[in-house]
């Protein structure tokens, strides 16, 4: 009995569709916003950002417990536009337009209507670092300069 099997499995190459490309375009439209590396409103930052409230500080107005914003002009804490919009309200009443998110540590400028890159802008980097340490208990993984 000779085993004469010589079956060779043919490998069928699957064609790659162009769906991925479409997704990229869609993603650019709907999701990713590039943070600005400069802002004309940094002059309104409070001079002492070395001591800031802890990330679990409640909203000054409605006591919302977390995911709040820190006003970088007066260090008050307010809730986001997804809660009761108290940070937005604070900006409208005081023109304090620079705020740091305690949920993801991003910095938003209401006047520019844009995110700011806190790791690049020298005036924002110290407070970003302070907030990061408060939130995670260790300094952020910056490149050593
Ligand atoms: Zn609130
Ligand atoms: Zn303020
Ligand atoms: Zn700005």
Automatic annotation (TrEMBL):
Keywords of this entry: Metal-binding, Zinc, Zinc-finger
InterPro entries: Znf_RING/FYVE/PHD, Znf_UBP
Gene3D superfamilies per UniProt: Zinc/RING finger domain, C3HC4 (zinc finger)
GO molecular function: zinc ion binding
Residues annotated as domain UBP-type: 37-138
Coiled-coil region list: none
PANTHER family in alphabetical order: HISTONE DEACETYLASE-LIKE PROTEIN
Protein name, entry field: UBP-type domain-containing protein
């Amino acid at each position: 009995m000779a085993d004469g099997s010589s079956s060779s499995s043919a490998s069928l190459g699957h064609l790659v569709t162009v769906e991925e490309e479409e997704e990229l375009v869609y993603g650019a439209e709907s999701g990713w916003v590039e943070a600005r590396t400069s802002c004309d409103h940094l002059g309104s930052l409070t001079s002492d950002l070395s001591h800031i409230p802890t990330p679990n500080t409640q909203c000054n107005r409605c006591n919302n417990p977390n995911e709040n914003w820190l006003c970088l002009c007066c260090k008050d804490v307010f809730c986001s536009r997804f809660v009761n919009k108290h940070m937005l309200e604070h900006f409208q009443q005081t023109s304090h337009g620079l705020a740091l998110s305690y949920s993801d540590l991003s910095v938003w400028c209401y006047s520019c209507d844009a995110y700011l890159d806190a790791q690049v802008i020298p005036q924002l980097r110290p407070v970003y670092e302070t907030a990061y340490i408060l939130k995670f208990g260790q300094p952020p993984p910056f490149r050593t300069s």
